[in-house]
Amino acid sequence: MGPPPIGQVPFHESLLLIAGRPGHGKTKLGLQLLLDAARAGRKALLFTLEFTELQAREHLSSMDTDEGNIPAHIEVLTSDQISVNYIVQHMLGLEPGTIAVIDYLQLLDQQRSKPMLSEQVKSLGEFAQRTGVILGFISQIDRSFETQGKRLPDLGDIRLPNFVDLGLFNKACFLHNGEAQLQDVA
């Protein structure tokens, strides 16, 4: 099961959590959402604290099966300053339906000078609701998931070194062993 087509993600679904263990496709899914958005003529941005711009562009290009120049239409931001203020500053004035993926959730408050993770997610959720942008957050799953014998992870398996209210997210997509499940977060 893949992600919903980008045109079917309603504006009120403003915060999407994309979660999985390493190597199970969460980054690939996030990048695919950006490619789909760009193909649909939407503005698409990747905020990454993990990749260099060159690495991100190589990943996007390798996924572009149309061999068009779609990856060039995706803005890739790699600053160490990525946080709520940086994201909002770069997204102010963008059209509703703009898609941004943040790679990744747990790194947003890595520096002590940045606001707490819960404050950043809450502020980003409020910003998304006001502006109609859609934010996807790539998230790690705690390694203890692998010992629980469950088919797919769930909200209780999100790796949270620092507290964040996961109820702030509208949807979550959990990935494991080639399977994906999209669910409402309530």
Topology:
Blueprint: E1 15-20, H1 26-39, E2 44-48, H2 53-63, E3 74-77, H3 84-91, E4 99-103, H4 117-131, E5 134-140, E6 171-176, E7 179-184
Parallel strand pairs: 1-5, 1-6, 2-3, 2-4, 4-5
Antiparallel strand pairs: 6-7
In short:
With 186 residues, the chain is of the alpha/beta class. 26% of the residues lie in helices and 21% in strands.
Describe this protein's structure.
The structure is a single chain. With 186 residues, the chain is of the alpha/beta class. The chain has one domain (6-184): P-loop containing nucleotide triphosphate hydrolases (Rossmann fold), CATH 3.40.50. Helix content is 26%, strand content 21%. The protein has four helices and seven strands, in the order βαβαβαβαβββ. The protein has helices at residues 26-39, 53-63, 84-91, 117-131, and strands spanning 15-20, 44-48, 74-77, 99-103, 134-140, 171-176, 179-184. The chain has a seven-stranded mixed sheet. Helix 4 links the parallel strand 4 and strand 5. It is globular. The chain starts with 14 loop residues before the first strand and ends with a strand.
Instruction: State the secondary-structure class.
Output: alpha/beta
Mean pLDDT: 88
- Count the domains: 1
- The global form is globular
Total beta-strand segments = 7
Separate helix tally:
4
Ends: how far apart?
A: 22 Å
Strand content: 15-25%
Helix content: 25-40%
The low-pLDDT segments are 1-12
CATH topology: Rossmann fold
